[in-house]
Specification:
With 205 residues, this protein is an all-beta fold. It is built from no helices and 20 strands. It has a domain of 82 residues: Immunoglobulin-like (Sandwich). The protein starts with 8 loop residues before the first strand and ends with a strand.
Length: 205
Amino acid sequence: IRIENTRAQIQKVRINGEPHAAFNDQVVILPNLQKGLNTIEVMLDKNISEQPRLTYISKRMLAIHTQGDSLIVQIQTKAKAKFDFFIPYPFVLLHADAQEWNRNGGDLVQGFVLSDRRLVLKPSRFNAFVISRASLPITNFKEEASVLTLSLRKGAGADSIWFQCAKPPQRLTFNNQPLRFQKVSNEYRVTLPDFVEQAKVTIAF
């Protein structure tokens, strides 16, 4: 649904009374709707919405909902599906085949998947940790105040992760083995050793 003939921007959306976190300034991205009557409420405002949300998808979005403090998006595709999320606070995005955050500013994380996928956008609670680039899927994310663990799935090419954090990392391990990392400007770059199917990276602060 596109909203036209107004200078106001979409602030909030509800579908059948439930919050809907898939829209940009002018367009509501619809999920699969139930049969029969559906009620869509669009609230406009002169200011840009600060709600974490999906702002673009190139293929079919079956559903989007929140679960606790996570935002979950179900994508259906047989080819590359590109997406954009707006997220104004530190986060980790799970299950994307590739992702990049804040490339052109605007607090957007952009990426793609190559098959049907359930994306999960999880806030990070400690150390302002955020993945700024990843060339492989991150399948799980666990954190404590002094350490966090990323579960990984093998990507299609060379595997690397870039991240940002408020406190510098002291030590990284890859499947319990020491892992080198490099600071580049305000980011940390990690080139991963070759692995089969799954791996874990632990970052200690």
